[in-house]
Write a structure and sequence with these properties.
With 145 residues, the protein is mainly α. It has helices at residues 3-28, 46-51, 62-86, 97-135, 138-144.
């Protein structure tokens, strides 16, 4: 892998993440999305496959390491959103169907807000990693791989 290829992988990751987030947002809004379009596990998305595979040559870099937690949190938060979306609305003696739906929507909106916040942290981490790669000398890059 060349330095240019590594930078391209990070750029692809950012674009792929934005696409992934648009699918998550569509699912949040109740639009049917193929489950495979938004992988739940961090090792199943395109970026995760690179990060936990070929990308591990950068595992000694702090900016690379800083990506793992927000990436994992992103998928965990998405899983919460997915499960909450699928959960049926519960009504009862003192809870009308309308009130229960509003409460469910408020909970979904809150999870989506969390997902958006974690997404921004991940994008910032990817940007930092990309910047570190760009600023690295060819000699330093070659020592990593």
């Amino acid at each position: 892998m060349t330095k240019k290829e590594a930078i391209e992988q990070v750029r692809k990751a950012k674009l792929g993440h934005k696409k992934w987030l648009s699918y998550a947002n569509a699912m949040h809004m109740g639009i049917g999305v193929d489950k495979d379009a938004v992988p739940m596990m961090e090792t199943d998305c395109a970026f995760g496959k690179w990060y936990y595979g070929e990308g591990q040559v950068f595992s000694d870099m702090e900016s690379f390491q800083a990506i793992e937690v927000p990436h994992s949190m992103l998928h965990q938060t998405y899983m919460k959103l997915y499960k909450a979306r699928k959960k049926p609305v519960k009504t009862g003696l003192f809870v009308s169907k309308n009130k229960a739906q509003n409460e469910k929507q408020a909970a979904l909106d809150n999870i989506m807000k969390q997902l958006t916040q974690v997404s921004q942290i991940l994008l910032d981490s990817l940007k930092e990693f990309e910047s570190d790669l760009k600023n690295m000398s060819d000699f330093e890059f070659t020592k990593l791989i």
